[in-house]
Amino acid sequence: MSLQLCTDVALSKYRTVDGSCNHPKNWGTSFTPVARILPPAYDDNVGSPRTRGKDGYPLPNPRTISSYVHPSTSDPAARTIMVMQWGQWLDHDITEFPVVTNANGPVKCCGPNGTLPTGETNPNCFPILLPCHEVNFAGSCMEFIRSVGATDRDGCLLNPREQVNSLTSFVDGSQIYGSTEELATRLRDGTGILLKTKKGFFLPEDESASCILRPGTNDYCFLSGDHRVNVQPGLGAMHTIWLRAHNSLAKELRSVRPADSNEEIFQLTRKIIGALQQVITYNEWLPIILGTEASKLKLTSKTGRTTLIPEVDPRILNEFATAAMRFGHSLIPEVLPIGSRKVLLRKLFNRPAEVLENLDDLIAGIAGVSRVMSESVDRNFVEEITNHLFEPPAAPKGRGLDLVSLNLQRGRDHGIPPYRDYRKVCGLRPIVDFDDTEALGPYAAQLARVYKSVDDIDLFTGLVHERPLRGAMVGPTLSCILGTQFYNLKYGDRFFFDTDDSAIAFSDGKYLVLLIVSLYIIKIYVLSIRTSSRTVDIEID
To answer: Known catalytic residues?
Structure first.
C-alpha cells in the first residue's frame, strides 16, 4: 500500500483494521513480509530450507532433537497457567504465518497413515521424516508444509525468500476484531456497536471451521478475529471474555454518549479494548517474563508517555515468531483444571464444548484456583504437545504431532540462522564447546548427543536451554530478542495507548482511568474468579 492512500486516515484517532497508515512507512500491515534480525541462512542462499550445518553435514532430525534434547517431563513453575495463556493470547494478536495450500484445502505431504509419500508431491512439502526407532508415532512421516513466501508486485517470490505475517504486527486486539475489513465486518452484529454473539454471550459460529463436536449436542465451532480460536478451551475462554468485555463496554458508552454515532461508539470501544491489551502486556506480563529488563528497555508505563520513533520498525521479527515467542510452549501444563477435573490436553484440542459448558471453571483453573501451575521455561515440554498434539479422538496410537519438531522445522523452513549467531548480535560471548554449561545450561552434554557442532544448534533449542536471568523467566539471548520485539512494537506504534500525540492520545484523566480499569480486569478475570456466590482471590505470582 502506498502512503498516498493513507491521506484520508492520517489524522484519524482510530486504527485501521489491517494496520495500514499507522507507521510512517506502513510497516506492520497485515499480509506483508516480516522483518529479520539477521539475513536468512538458506541452503542455497535463496529459499531452500536450512538443512545443513557446519562443514555441510546434515542437521539432526527434528524429532531426534525433540526426543533426546527436550524430554517430555513436567517441571511446574510458581506461576499460574494465566502466564502461559496470556502469552498464547498475545501471540495470536501479532503473529501468524499462513502456509501453502491447494485450491481444495490443506496440502498432504505424507502418504496414508503416516507413510512416506510416493509419486510427485507439492514442491513446498517439507515433511519431518521419523527415525527408525520411533515408538510414539505410527509410520515414518509427519506432515509439514512450508510457509507462504512473500511476493513482489509482479507475483514473483522475493529473493531471498521471506515470509508473510497475516496479522497486523501491533498489539491492537486483532484476534478479537480481525486483521482484514472482510473479517471485521463479518464479526459485527448489525447494531453498529456490538460484536456478534451466539446464545447471547458466546462467540458466534464459524460453519466453515473444523473442530471436534460431540454427537447429539449443540456444540459448534467458534468464529473470532483469529481462526485458531478453537485450538484449546483456555484460548476460547480468553476470546469469550474479551467479546463480552467489548459488548459490555460498548453498551455503557452508548448510555453515557447518546449523541455519538454507532461507528464512533464501536471504534472508541475497540480503541479502549486494544489499549487494555497493551496495558496488561507491558505493565503486567512482560515484567514477569523479562524481569528488570522490561524497565531498562522502558517498556512499562512507569517511564511516562510514549513518543513515536519513526525509525523504529514495528514489523514482527522472523526470529521472534519462529523461535523466541515459542518459549511459551514450555509453559504449557499436562492438564487443564476444570472444576474438580484435571483433563489431559490431548482430550481438549479443538474441542469447544468446555467453553460452552464450563467457562467459569475454565477461567478459575487458568487463574490458579486449583493450584495447577504453568510449567517452567526450560528445555522440557510435556508429552501432551510432543507426542499427542492434535491427536484425533479414538485414533490409533501415534496419529498426533510433535510441537517441538514442528518448531524446529519451521525455523529451518524460514532459514533462521543458528543460535550462536544471535548470541553475538545480543552482545554475548561466543559458545566455546559443548562443555560450556555457563552458556548452554546444565544439559549441554545432551546437545552433544545430537549436534555435531555447537555452531549448528537451532535457535529455538538454544534459547530454551539458557539459564534464566535473575528475576526473569528467560535467559539472556531470549530476553534480548523478546525485548527488541516489544520495544519495536511500542515505539513504532503511533497508536500506543500512552502516546504523547495529543491528536490521538487518551486525556490524562482517561489515561489514569485506563490503568485503573486494566487492574480491575486483571482482578476480575485473572486474579479473582466468581464461583457460585463467593469470590476467590488468586495470586498471579
So the answer is: 92
